[in-house]
Q: What sequence folds into this?
């Protein structure tokens, strides 16, 4: 009974699928491909259901489509109020289906235009705020940041001198990286040397990103191996 | 011509101007309009998943019709429909079968798939990382220091852990900040080009 319970458990299924994916390390094989197709199918189904409940239902179905269907006696339940303004996104959403008929497929450009226009418009002030102003504010060496330096010193147990020197390094390095990406001026002389310092900062950053990415993957790998050992009752935590 | 090119261009311009200007109007009605438009864009955007799923299903069905990899395509189709229906009919609550399948099938598959990359990244690094010049040497040394600092060696060698933390928080931060500012400028430039109709690639042919 114990073995049967173990054999037909969710954990055994998860372990089998884990081993199926790991089998790719030897070579591509039918078991791996089965797990791969299962993964794609499940991900698409999961994505569809979650998009429906998190995005489509509260923003389109509940305010407009479900109340209309209730009035047409296609759905039961407590009568929901109709928000007629939502006829606009409903029409735009339905225009996606125009792609089915080649003659009217150009109509799909309208929902794209709505999304792209609104997204681009909203992105301008937000990108300026988050990606430029905030980044510059945190880079500039000025008195409002001093409390931040003290907090950093406490957090990492670095002396205030190290934190302040680091802040100067960040300031100069950010300028150097920007100088490297500024192509309107030829990279020659003192400016060229400064831009070259930018490349060095970029390389150090890429090395750090690479190292942390590798460790994140290893962490996942260790997690999967520990799961297999736990499934086999070799380790208990 | 009007519906296929002019109307989409007008719509992009109008929505772009509305989207950008609402940020600067502190009036409650402007904030309310901004919220409504955001909800509409989520609703319209979410409907696009129908297109994506339809395209995927069409591909699998075509493969089945051609008799190409029947078992695999069947598995993908059944799991797609099964998962979607389980979610739509049975709900997505924490004790639902939908969540059980997600936690016990999809999460292990996902984690294992990404953990495989550990092997390939290591193998690629072994082949590609050569200290050919100053830049490549710096990249190599930084990567090694960060890997050692994060690993258990960093627990006993505190100087290594401190150095790794400093690399992550100082030069790495500076590099990311420089790139973020560049990306921000690029986003603004591209958005302006789209709104003004200079960039029209999104309309296709």
A:
């Amino acid at each position: 009974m114990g073995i049967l319970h173990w054999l037909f458990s969710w954990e055994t299924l998860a372990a089998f699928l884990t081993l199926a994916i790991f089998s790719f390390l030897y070579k591509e094989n039918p078991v791996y491909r089965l797990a791969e197709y299962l993964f794609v199918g499940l991900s698409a189904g999961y994505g569809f259901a979650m998009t429906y409940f998190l995005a489509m239902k509260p923003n389109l179905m509940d305010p407009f489509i479900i109340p209309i269907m209730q009035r047409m006696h296609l759905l039961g339940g407590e009568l929901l109020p109709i928000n007629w303004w939502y006829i606009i996104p409903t029409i735009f959403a339905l225009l996606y289906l125009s792609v089915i008929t080649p003659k009217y497929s150009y109509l799909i450009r309208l929902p794209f235009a709505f999304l792209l226009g609104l997204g681009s418009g909203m992105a301008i002030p937000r990108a300026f705020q988050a990606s430029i102003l905030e980044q510059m504010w945190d880079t500039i060496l000025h008195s409002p940041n001093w409390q931040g330096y003290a907090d950093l010193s406490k957090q990492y147990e670095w002396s205030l001198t190290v934190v302040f020197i680091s802040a100067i390094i960040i300031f100069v390095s950010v300028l150097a990286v920007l100088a490297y990406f500024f192509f309107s001026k030829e990279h020659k002389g003192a400016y060229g040397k400064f831009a070259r310092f930018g490349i060095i900062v970029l390389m150090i950053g890429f090395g750090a990103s690479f190292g942390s990415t590798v460790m994140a993957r290893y962490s996942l790998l260790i997690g999967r191996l520990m799961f297999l050992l736990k499934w086999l009752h070799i380790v208990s935590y | 011509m009007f519906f296929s090119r002019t109307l989409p261009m007008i719509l992009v311009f109008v929505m772009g101007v509305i989207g950008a200007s609402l940020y600067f109007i502190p009036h409650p009605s402007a904030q309310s309009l901004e919220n409504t438009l955001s909800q509409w864009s989520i609703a319209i955007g979410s409907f696009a998943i129908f297109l994506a799923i339809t395209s995927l299903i069409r591909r699998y069905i075509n493969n089945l019709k051609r008799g190409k990899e029947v078992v695999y395509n069947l598995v993908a189709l059944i799991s797609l429909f099964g998962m979607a229906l389980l979610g739509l009919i049975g709900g997505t609550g924490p004790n639902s079968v939908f969540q059980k399948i997600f936690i016990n099938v999809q999460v292990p598959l996902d984690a294992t798939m990404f953990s495989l990359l550990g092997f390939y990244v290591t193998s690629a690094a072994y082949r590609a990382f050569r200290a050919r010049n100053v830049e490549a040497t710096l990249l190599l040394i930084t990567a090694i220091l960060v890997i050692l600092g994060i690993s258990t060696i960093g627990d006993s060698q505190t100087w290594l852990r401190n150095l790794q933390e400093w690399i992550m928080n100082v030069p790495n931060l500076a590099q990311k900040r420089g790139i973020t500012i560049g990306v921000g400028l690029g986003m603004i430039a591209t958005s302006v080009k789209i709104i003004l109709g200079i960039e029209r690639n999104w309309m296709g042919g």
About this structure: Residues 214 and 226 of chain A are 18 Å apart (CA to CA). The mean pLDDT of chain A is 90. Residues 140-237 of chain A form one domain.
